[in-house]
Amino acid sequence: MCRGDVSSPLCHQCVMNATQKLSTDCSSSKGAVIWYDECMVRYSNNSFFSTVATSPGAYLWNTANITNQASFMRLLYDTMNESANKAADSSVGAKKYATKEASISSFQTLHCLAQCTKDLSPQDCSTCLSDAIGALPQCCNGKQGGRVLFPS
């Protein structure tokens, strides 16, 4: 699955690179998932379609801290929840992807992105994104940037 704003050629290249990496590094595994900036590739010997999967997860964060943590975290949660609601509010098979920006200050902008796999129902997508947003304090609290990545 590619990020919702990635072009077809870039998506194709990302999936090819991820597939090659998985076949090299995980050739004896019954299941694996890999995330790149533009795509995610996952395989398993068990069916995972139309099922929410929050494990294994990956948590990435910027090492720089924000200055006003309380107001930033409120803005982050509000903006992420808006993105998540928009991404989840689509039918199965539709692109479940949304972005939203919010002004932190006159020279700083918060960029948020939420995305689910297209096979999830709106309710399952909402559940998965809520879990991801709920994981933000453990991974990224007070940081200038972060990502919570789940297989779904």
UniProtKB/TrEMBL annotation:
Q: Which domain of life is it from?
A: Eukaryota
Keywords of the record, alphabetical order, are: Kinase, Receptor, Repeat, Secreted, Signal, Transferase
One Gene Ontology term of the molecular function aspect: kinase activity
GO annotations of cellular component type = extracellular region
In this chain the Gnk2-homologous domain maps to: 1-48, 54-152
Question: Do the record's keywords include Signal?
Answer: yes
The protein depicted here goes by the name Cysteine-rich receptor-like protein kinase
Biological source species: Trifolium pratense
